[in-house]
Amino acid sequence: MNYHLITTDAQLKEVCQAASKASKIALDTEFVRVKTYYPQLSLIQLYDGEQLSLIDPIAITNMEPFKNLLTDGKVTKILHAGSEDIEVFFHHLACVPQPMLDTQIMAAFVGHPISSGFASLVNKYLTIALDKSESRTDWLVRPLSDKQCQYAAADVFFLLPLAEKLQQLVDKLGYLPAVTDECQRILLRRQEILTPAEAYKSIKNSWQLRAQQLACLKQLAAWRLNQARRRDLAINFVVREEHLWKIARYLPNSLTELQTIGLTGQEIRCHGQDLLQIVTQCHALEEKACPQPLYHLIDHPKYREAFMAVKTLTKQISEQQKLNTELLASRRQINQLLAIHWGLKKSHNTPDLLAGWRGQLLTNPLKQLLALYC
């Protein structure tokens, strides 16, 4: 297929001006994220139905025309499994594709698995077999080969016709407003930024720790996240999660004790003194200055019964509506609902299962059901 490699500011401006006249454009990105905290944007694929452009963000100095296109409300952006692409755009360009439709989401609404791959959908709806041999290539290396470029181009060339077929099916079923709502929720969720003060809550088994230990984990997790962001280093390349938990659990007092509980030599050499300083600070904390214990949801006496009741109810409703059960209510969303219902989790937002298109289907039956599990 024909593509244009865009490597100058002037070329980018021209391409974006042409694409802004289209009602829909297909977008994809290639990025590398092995040891870095932030994804390293390597290529942007853009197809407006007439011209297919491979935009090299490494060579281009002014991305403003593309940012304007990305936020142009008159142009719908089509992506597939776009969560990571949204994160890439948000980090590198400080904006997200708006409005946006995701073909993976559309496919889920017409009965496909929640994580359907692009190649399988293209094969089913367009009867075309895609070559995915370049999926693990190093996109930062220049120059890009023609094989790499053809692979990247295919990811957007077939995206518009696939989206058209899926959108017709979704619209026929009456789910287009729900698809739009779900895509908007993904956009909002991918713009959420974890604060260092909250990082400890996502550490596995943090609920097992007592007050002073939890205070230590809170400071350790915040320190690690700040280190990762400042150095653009994957968080487990700073200190591994299980090692962070062990420090909080055992509160070691020396480099030898850090080694005893399992930290690597590199972790101790690079960060041992900083880690011990945090432990020392936490030794002096009074209990009233420590965070509240984290409640383990599954330890709630009514958890198992309530979880199965909600799962059964949502499965019944998904079957009635001919919806993918996991799309309607995932385990994470059921747990979120129960945690908020029992006051174990504070949230300024309505639980997913009671909001948007899900809320229209589930709010009344779920409220009646939850009244049984107070």
UniProtKB/TrEMBL annotation:
Its Gene Ontology biological processes?
A: tRNA 3'-end processing
| InterPro entries from the UniProt entry | 3'-5'_exonuclease_dom, HRDC-like_sf, HRDC_dom, HRDC_dom_sf, RNase_D, RNase_D-like, RNAseD_HRDC_C, RNaseH-like_sf
Span-the-membrane segments of this chain are none
Q: What is its EC number?
A: 3.1.13.5
Protein's cellular compartments: Cytoplasm
Q: Kindly report the protein's main subcellular placement as a broad class.
A: cytoplasm
Q: Which residues form the HRDC domain?
A: 210-289
Give the UniProt keywords, A-Z: Cytoplasm, Exonuclease, Hydrolase, Nuclease, tRNA processing
This protein's superkingdom?
Answer: Bacteria
Q: Which NCBIfam families match?
A: PRK10829.1, rnd
Substrates-to-products reaction catalysed: Exonucleolytic cleavage that removes extra residues from the 3'-terminus of tRNA to produce 5'-mononucleotides
Q: Which GO terms describe its cellular component?
A: cytoplasm
Q: Which cofactor does it need?
A: a divalent metal cation
Query: Cross-referenced Pfam families, in alphabetical order?
Result: DNA_pol_A_exo1 (PF01612), HRDC (PF00570), RNAseD_HRDC_C (PF21293)
Question: What name has this protein been given in UniProt?
Answer: Ribonuclease D
What is this protein for, i.e. what is its function? Exonuclease involved in the 3' processing of various precursor tRNAs. Initiates hydrolysis at the 3'-terminus of an RNA molecule and releases 5'-mononucleotides.
The family annotation for this protein states: Belongs to the RNase D family.
GO MF, one term, reads: ribonuclease D activity
